[in-house]
Batch of 4 targets.
Target 1
Amino acid sequence: MAAGERSWCLCKLLRFFYSLFFPGLIVCGTLCVCLVIVLWGIRLLLQRKKKLVSTSKNGKNQMVIAFFHPYCNAGGGGERVLWCALRALQKK
């Protein structure tokens, strides 16, 4: 008798989880769509902010160049290469 009751309980439990499957998918999909909309809004906000900051006083867009040179201070001459690249860019 106990085994029959356990299987009935397991069957009820499986039906309960199956009944939550589709509503769970709907909630998960809705949350994903909301997340995409929020991230898209943040991206647009940051792009507008960047555009406002990058405009100089005379109305022209400034060009910003950044260098990432890992281990330039390791003593292998990388720092000199970096400064030569910056000097060439300034001359250009």
Note: The two ends are 89 Å apart (CA to CA).
Target 2
Amino acid sequence: MEAYSRFLTMTPWGLSLSRMTPLGMLLGLLMASCFTICLSHQNPKEFALTNPEKSRTKETERKETKAKEELDTEVLEVFHPTHEWQALQPGQAVPVGSHVRLNLQTGARELKLQYKDKFQNNLKGSKKGKRLDINTNAYTSQDLKSALAKLKEGAEKESSKEDKARQDEVKQLFRPIEELKKDFAELNVVIETDMQIMVRLINKFNSSSSSLEEKIAALFDLEYYVHQMDNAQDLLSFGGLQVVINGLNSTEPLVKEYAAFVLGAAFSSNPKVQVEAIEGGALQKLLVILATEQPLATKKKVLFALCSLLRHFPYAQQQFLKLGGLQVLRSLAQDTEVLAVRVVTLLYDLITEKMFAEEAAELTRETSPEKLQQYRQVHLLPSLLEQGWCAITANLLALPEHNAREKVLQTLGALLATCLDHFRQDAQLSRTLASLQVEYQALAALELQDGEDVGYFRELLGSINSLLQELR
């Protein structure tokens, strides 16, 4: 033990602590220098302070990107698949629609044809070793326009084919009119137009060999056709209208009745036919029938024809007043209640028609100056006042039917400005209005109890109240 102690004191390990500290520091500096020199001769990438796995991934991506760029700048060899699985080599282009899989055992990509019929024609013209030039500028704008034009032409051809097919289908469902006429002719059935039918009916009516029943049947059928404006005007082209007008001179009341029935339908809202009727003497003939003894049914139809002729035709209204038409209507109004209501309705229509025409001409100027001048020459209201229509209309208020009273009240309102002085002096009119006011107040109250928002009797009561207020 003593010898070992002496050895420690003789060697550096046996040096004192104060002498060993500087030596240790010097030794550490030498070792650090040697380690630095060794590192400078090594690959810096092996000792970079980065994640080795991330570095390898980035390197792989750079290589793949570079390979793709090289492939994009060059043409690719087209792989020709078959119906068997084959390995795909790097750099080979895969045809569109091929079936591709990854072989998990070998790690290689394999492909084959997906559908035999779909790609057979595309592969016939391809040869092994042929290159596919991937070029985005392979088609010019002119090529695209030409392809689009061909596409449109194909669509038009397809549309024309569809239209032709549809026409063929319709032809199968329907037959030509000439073919039908031929078939009907074989069956002794004749297809006639409206014009041909009207000509045939007029000939039957005008024939002396036709019986009364045949003439009436012809007029009855003719009325159905002349309701149409074009047919009524066609009646003028072959003189059919004048034949019917002359039928008003017949001694048979039924012929007069149905001839007036046809004329009323033809006159309605048809100015061309109205003008021809005035020139053909229809107005005079109608007034003569109304002024003479005739059956009630005949007078109804004749009055209907007269109303159709006068409405919206101011020249005819002038001629009506000149021929004493108001006197004829006055006798009708005093004859029967049915004719009286129709006469009052006609007068109301003529008064309001002229009033509205003059107002429309002042506000909108839509009425032609010639027609407006004709309306101004129709002195209807002065003629009504002169011929005593104020009293005649007031007396009609005693009719028992509500509809008749409504028409009379409307006409009294239209005549109010012209007949106001006469109405105020007519004590019977005031008593009648007061009586009707009480009656319709009770009926209006019943309407309110029934929950009706707008009542017929309340409207009549309003008209009566307005007249009473004006007469006070």
Note: The two ends are 161 Å apart (CA to CA).
Target 3
Amino acid sequence: MGSGIMARAVVQAYRQALANASKSGVAQETVQNIRRASKMMAEPEARQILGVTEQSSWEEILKKYDNLFEQNAKNGSFYLQSKVHRAKECLETVYQKKHQGTEDS
């Protein structure tokens, strides 16, 4: 009996929290962040796809990206082309953060 009351209280609190979040726009922002994060690729996977190392320069990464993207545009698959593009996006974020870190120092 006590667990039933507790379960109802938790559900009611959850519903109230959702209602409050939707009023403030937090719910929509959270959903967008989850969607964005699910599309992001991990850095090691991105490096593996493009065939670069942590020591590779941004110019090397762009050369690899251009080469792989063009190969898959001509006679490859859209899936592979999109993986190559996501890998470049991931590493672009990493290199931008590194660049900002060196400017702030």
Note: Helices lie at 2-24, 26-39, 43-50, 58-75, 78-104.
Target 4
Amino acid sequence: MQSGGRQAEAPGRGPRVLVVGGGIAGLGAAQRLCRHPAFSHLRVLEATARAGGRIRSEHSFGGVVEVGAHWIHGPSQGNPVFQLAAKYGLLGERALSEENQLIETGGHVGLPSVSYASSGVSVSLELVAEMASLFYSLIDRTREFLQATETTPPSVGEYLKEKIRQHTASWTEDEETKKLKLAILKNLFNVECCVSGTHSMDLVALAPFGEYTVLPGLDCTFPEGYQGLTDRIVASLPKDVMVFDKPVKTIHWNGSFQEASAPGETFPVLVECEDGDCFPAHHVVVTVPLGFFKKHLDTFFEPPLPTEKVEAIRKIGFGTNNKIFLEFEEPFWEPDCQHIQVVWEDTSPLEDATPELQDAWFKKLVGFWVLPPFHRASHVLCGFIAGLESEFMETLSEEEVLRSLTQVLRRVTGNPWLPAPRSVLRSCWHSAPYTRGSYSYVAVGSSGDDMDRLAQPLPSDGKGAQFQVSAK
């Protein structure tokens, strides 16, 4: 096959390298390659009109909101994202302080400022703290299964439920309090689904769950937006490296391709774009989201990937975690409020009820985080929701989302006259064609080895790597 269409590369010495995907992984790879004098012929093919991928900051409500990545988790010296952000001067004094970097959070979400129940009453924060202590102690105990060849039960969710059943046997409170405890625990399960990017913790493998390394440091944000980080990386690249609006259709590899502008030279890889343009290369680094791989696995590589890589892509989990921003003219929460928890009293982690999504999707919403006010007349809450309910939310109109969450807030606060939010903004990562979800997790039946297997370069016959796949 001979390459055709617009040719972005100029002929010359040195290998031609393509990076497919302009998210943080692709940009990081490009930045490192550009520092090496051997890789002067480098291009990054990005499917959309912007770089950053799932790092996406938007100017809304009179300020900057994070539609994608929100926090730096574990902002300390062992965290490469923190190091880059500090290097570029993108963090505030508190985040950079040694005191903040030494705080041990255990990787767990902090306690809410206020907790509302679906009956319209406030939940005791002491009771919330008691259930959070139980839940996160069990999460910490999952590390005991690290490197176990086989676990019973196989999933994090089943393990947690088994231990919770044992604890409930010793509860001495009245039935209503026991029910409320279970409802609080259900909320914490939903929080963990957001953290893990999964529909259910029953889908997350128990044995490798403890592989996640928790770094010290209190989670921090970017005052001017997370996208400032990817913008700075792009600015550090030579200006002809980025090629936007270039969705890739098929990667033809292990072949022998020619280009009219380079007579006599052959290339083992040809990247074919949806618009018909073709880019020959010696090496390709593929950094597209795993959700995209799962959707296009049958057509994205020619010849098809080896069986072990196909199986790895199929086995690794990839789920959706979305945000819903609500803007109010006046806050209904207290000035020092940072996190509002919502507890549905008719839910329990020990029950496998599956109501119709249109009737109960909002019950998967874990609550809201209060964003710093942008100005006097703009007060914003950011809600998080994961799983199939999150994907269903994407199918609704903004008016339907706004109406549903207005009803939820009026119900849980016990105030039927609570003013409706004046605007809504949400992410839709599952329906985004080049992401198809938010992030990966080690699913039941897979292991961390599948991640490593997927990252091994091809071909594997020792004749020189043509391309490498990065799943995330």
Note: The two ends are 31 Å apart (CA to CA).
